Amino acid sequence: MSSKTINCVVMFADVAGSTAMYENMGDAPARERIGKALNTMISVSKRNKGRLVKTIGDEILVYFLDADLALMAAQNIQEMMEDNRSPETVGVSIRIGMHFGSTIHENNDIFGDTVNVAARVADMARGRQILLTQEMTTMLKTTALANKSRLFDRTMVKGRQEPVDVYIFAWEAESDITNMATVSSFTGLVSHIKKSKLHIIYHQQKIDIPNNNSSFVLGRGSDCELFVNGNLTSRYHARIENRRGKFIITDQSTNGTFLHTQEGQEIFLRREEFTLFGHGKISLGCSVIEQVPEEHIQYICE
């Protein structure tokens, strides 16, 4: 039994919502669709010099010796799954988690802390997202790739004393995050205010989001916490989460997220964050002023 230690990027990529696919499509059609998705992910990874370790149900484990190629492979996977011209990709979304570090390579398998961290990062991702660690961002040589990565979250990993900084990679062609602000300047104005609950009102729904909420997603994806249909709405358009008692909305869409505050000011977010306070309205993909009132998403912080 021979083993060696290598430094590499470990990538987990899996089909999001596979359980629902089996329920909605039936076992055989869902299995065929997922199998084709796995084959596509494996093929794209290999073209970018990735080395397949194994498949685990609806997930693949791959490692790369080059961080840039690893991220390009992840982007290519998402782009191929977004191609509506291929019936194999319709209804399939992929979530990807990546980390760079030292691994033990033994009997065609890899082990170690790097694998554990990559798995944890993949668990945090939702469909169509690519998440990577700060360690991996420092290994990127291509400026264009590095500029599309921004701080997303911080998480604890079993066996580690310090939290891991997780970044999100904006892989869509329309994305432009070179001059992106990670936190809106308005955040500082209300940093002292901590809210215990956020109310979301949309159509006939009223949803209360407590301050222990980890993530509340708005979009046209069937697994979003708030389903919002529309031609300008992305599948996973925006995310609301509570951080240290403040509710923060993050745009992760193609067309942006618009907010109308209680002071009457409209805020446009494009791959940016904003701290919600008071009450106001949210519109996905177009201005609140241009949106019909029935489609406004109202929010109330208390």
Instruction: Label the overall shape.
Output: globular
Mean residue pLDDT: 85
Kindly name the structural category.
alpha+beta
Give the termini distance in whole angstroms: 60 Å
CATH superfamily label of the largest domain: Nucleotide cyclase, GGDEF domain
Low-confidence stretches: 174-193
Largest sheet: 8 strands, mixed
Q: Which architecture name of the largest domain does CATH use?
A: 2-Layer Sandwich
Pattern of helices and strands: EHHEEHEEHEHHEEEEEEEEEEEEE
> How many domains would you count in the coordinates?
2
* Percentage of residues in strands: 35-45%
Number of helices: 6
Rg on CA atoms, Å? 20 Å
**CATH class term of the largest domain:** Alpha Beta
CATH topology of the largest domain: Alpha-Beta Plaits
Instruction: Give helix % range.
Output: 10-25%
**Annotation, overall tally of beta strands:** 19
Overview of the structural elements:
It contains six helices and 19 strands. The chain is α+β, with helices and mostly antiparallel strands. It folds into two domains: 3-169, Nucleotide cyclase, GGDEF domain (Alpha-Beta Plaits, 2-Layer Sandwich), CATH 3.30.70; 185-301, Tumour Suppressor Smad4 (Sandwich). Helix 1 runs antiparallel to helix 2 (27-47) and helix 2 runs antiparallel to helix 3.
Please specify the SSE layout and strand pairing.
Elements: E1 3-16, H1 18-25, H2 27-47, E2 51-56, E3 59-64, H3 67-81, E4 93-106, E5 109-111, H4 113-124, E6 130-133, H5 134-137, H6 143-146, E7 149-155, E8 164-169, E9 197-202, E10 205-210, E11 216-219, E12 226-227, E13 238-243, E14 246-251, E15 257-261, E16 266-269, E17 273-275, E18 279-284, E19 297-301
Helix pairs in contact: 1-2, 2-3
